[in-house]
Amino acid sequence: MAVSSFPACVSELKGVILDLCGVLYDSGEGDGVAIPGSVEAVNKLKASNLKLRFCTNETQATREKFVGKLQRLGFNINVSEVFPPAPAAIAILTHRGLRPHLLVHDGLLPEFDGVETTDPNCVIIGDAAENFSYQNLNQAFKVLIELEKPLLFSLGQGRYYKETDGLKLDVGVYMKALEYACDIKAEVIGKPSQMFFQSVLSDMGLQPHEVLMIGDDLVSDVGGAQSCGMKGVQVRTGKYRPSDERHPSVTADGTVDDLAQAVDMILSHRGH
To answer: Is the overall model pTM greater than 0.85, yes or no?
Structure first.
């Protein structure tokens, strides 16, 4: 499939932010499967003079375990380069003196080991997978509905993501259920939150117009990046659907077959 346009800003780029699931690999049994050409594409970016970061809404494991999985798949990635929502959530809890009720995946719980959770005054919801039972959702609802000023934090708001055996419901579906039940609006930590993207830009020391985001989620990856002033390119891997290219409110600055094609386009435009 042909490239659907490509951002004119490529020649001025100083940095690239990559989504992970659906762009570098498809999750699933074991460590999942690397998308063809993605390992080499990351290596090419690292060999260039572009700054590189990885921005993910992954909330099923600690950052260390998650990066370990990516390294086993062959990716040259360090923990300090990866930005998931959990550390940002903990910073917010600490700053605001909050005690969360956690509705998250068991694999993420160690991230919150140092966080006080007794007598909760807010709820944090992540991609809890099998922990999204009626009982657990109802418990989160009970905590919220009994608070004078209920606070719901969601570690992302994706509708679904792709694993090797097909599409899976994501945290946004359950976030919406709690919003509806409690008549509240969740504070989203993770993509597409502008604050989340800005934290990555600050770490890179770059301005939005100097950075390109590449992802498979048109709304969270591309739309979130665009809302911060970045350009956003969508890959036709992961959760991509042809209907994305006719979305009523978000239009990618470019659409390419995969990460390998995107990186080749970037580096050829920059003379590498």
So the answer is: yes
